[in-house]
Amino acid sequence: MKYVIVGYSVAAVNAITAIRESDKTGEITVISNEDQLYSRPLISYYLAGKLKKDKIGFTSKDFEKDMKITVLYGAEAVKIETKSRHVELNNKKKLPYDRLLVCTGGSPIKIPVDGLKDGLKGVFTFTKLADAKELEKYIEKNKLKEAVILGGGLIGMKAAEALLGKKMKFKILDIADRLLANTFDKEASALLEEKLKANGCEFLKETTIKKVIAKAGKIEDLVLSSGKKLKAKLLIMAVGVRPEISLVKGTPITAGRGIIVDSRMETGVPGVFSAGDCAEGLEFLSGKGAVIAIWPTAAKQGKVAGHNMAGVKDVFTGSFAMNSVEILGVPSISFGITNPKEDGYEVLKKSADGKYKKIVIKDNKLVGVILVNCIERAGIYGLLIKEKLDVFGLKKELLTDDFGFLLLPTDFRKHFVTGEGTEV
Amino acid sequence: MKRIEINEEYCLGCRLCEVHCVTAHSKSKDIIKTFKSEGFKPLVDSCIAFEKCGYTTFALQCRHCHDAPCIEACLTSAMYRDKEGTVLHDKDKCVGCWMCIMVCPFGVIKPDFKNKRVASKCDLCGDRETPACVEHCPNEAIKLKK
Ligand SMILES: Cc1cc2nc3c(=O)[nH]c(=O)nc-3n(C[C@H](O)[C@H](O)[C@H](O)COP(=O)(O)OP(=O)(O)OC[C@H]3O[C@@H](n4cnc5c(N)ncnc54)[C@H](O)[C@@H]3O)c2cc1C
Ligand code: SF4
Ligand code: SF4
Predict the structure, then answer these.
(1) For a surface tag, which of A178, A204, B11, B81 has the fewest beta carbons within 10 Å of its beta carbon?
(2) Whole-angstrom Cα distance, residue B80 to residue B99?
(3) Do A196 and A204 contact (CB within 8 A), yes or no?
(4) ipTM greater than 0.90, yes or no?
């Protein structure tokens, strides 16, 4: 059996491990257009100088040897031929496959801004280790102390965390009226905004960049949507990522926002699988396919894909949006639908002493949670969402500070806590 | 594989499990030194999520899940499974991203916000025959099952 995997990150690593559980001899070739394997979310820790040397990886040192895989670093897959079953590389080499996994992840979204040209110095995206390394060099060389971050979403906040580690000050701009707009509401955002302000940073809500003004190929100033001018020698573009699906365009492999897969992570073309940030796996709360671009989902989908590629049946039972962000000592975790837009949702909130808890319920089931400064037993909320526990009589309990299993129905608790071989 | 079974009906709420958990993970392994000179706090630093509601109490530790979500979610592989199947935590690799806390369905991972890393997670007491909490539970509310 010949396995080819495009993209070498968390989905790929989990797929490889899963394949090797049963197939010890099949030939596995991995194509990576980067030059090393690393944990993407750690790039902010790297830039902040918080990682010990060589700690950017997330596998054992001998992973490639132990798994007997060949990794082609610095190689780009440019074409998939589903009929003759091979992948073409940028150096024209053709790799035949029996099973193919496309786990190409996401690419930063580019938005057109007047005056913003490719190659303009001082403008960076922040999704790859190479970005972090270049940023580091640029900041040092130009002795920068300030920056502007466009986008207050997850990546913007990660960039912010990194800059704080470098003792830099920054302004975050976003068209939304709050930080982490996909998950946070205004109250949750306010807790972060307050901290940012106290640290000499600022959040400019409902603001975007109208024009970039450069001098000698270097970024100098920004004209904001408000008409105000802002000095900016460093601009981090963090408006979001989109699934990297260019490879399947023009092939019979279908894609919406991401590559469409079944519950086994197989695409419409037999033998071709997809997983991670580029795939539309099952979204648990809607029951439909959706891109959920987070690490645990990529890991799980990769594992399921790997099993099925090796002929061991495994099913992806769905996931939902969740994340954990800590900035300036304010930890937060969110799950599911946190800002319901339609009717039919019940929202409970509690805020005191800098802590904030928000619970979103639909049809007596928990569907969303925000926890700021009170993340201690967060995972139990995730469990309740997954198990669709009826929370009709538990609404007050969900908000309490000492929320835990004892507040849940006895049979539910016993089933989970004392149950045999807990599968979750 | 070793597994700790919980019997909430037998739990007296004495929290000796926590006291002995912290002692077993201290430098001196001496109960007095642990809390006096080493400065540990039994309720904060144990690997046990102790719950109390009215007169019902129970002590919960890591279930060493079969398909452990914390390992899958860990950004650094600080959470890992050893050869015996025990889910362990490597403090050196941990960056305190709290992904594990987000996905652990039992809420048994305790964060150390100051040092930005997981503070404590049950390791089933490594090479000890019986975990310290089980050994010192006076009423067999937590029992070892092999
Ligand atoms: C700064 C940052 C912080 C984050 N923090 C968190 C967090 O705290 N928690 C969390 O859950 N998630 C976080 N994420 C998201 C997380 O990193 C992703 O969900 C995860 O990396 C997805 O893994 P993946 O395997 O699908 O793809 P990716 O990690 O995106 O990797 C895909 C790989 O494929 C390569 N590739 C693409 N096309 C080709 C081609 N044609 N040929 C060869 N190689 C190709 C890419 O270069 C890349 O190396 C963060 C992301 C970023 C950028
Ligand atoms: S820490 Fe939580 S998720 Fe991880 S093995 Fe233990 S109980 Fe399971
Ligand atoms: S807090 Fe530490 S152990 Fe937990 S997921 Fe993050 S790096 Fe892994």
Answers:
(1) B81
(2) 14
(3) no
(4) yes
Does the CB of B95 have a partner CB in chain A at under 8 Å? yes
Domain with B73, as residue range(s), is 66-105+112-119
CATH number of A2-106+242-309: 3.50.50.60
In CATH, A123-239 is 3.50.50.60: yes
Output the pTM of the full model.
0.95
Same-domain pairing of B27 and B45: yes
Answer whether A2-106+242-309 and A123-239 agree in fold.
yes
Half-sphere exposure of B100 (CA within 13 A, CB side): 31
Domain tally for chain B?
2
Strands A218-224 and A229-231: antiparallel
pLDDT tens digits for A316-367? 999 999 999 999 999 999 999 999 999 999 999 999 999 999 999 999 999 9
Pocket of ligand 1 (CB under 6 A): A 6-12, 31-34, 40-41, 43-44, 76-77, 103-106, 126-127, 155, 158, 244, 247, 276-277, 293-296, 298, 323; B 97, 99
**CB within 8 A of B136, min separation 6: which ones?**
B16, B17, B19, B20
What Rg do the C-alpha atoms of chain A give, in angstroms?
A: 23
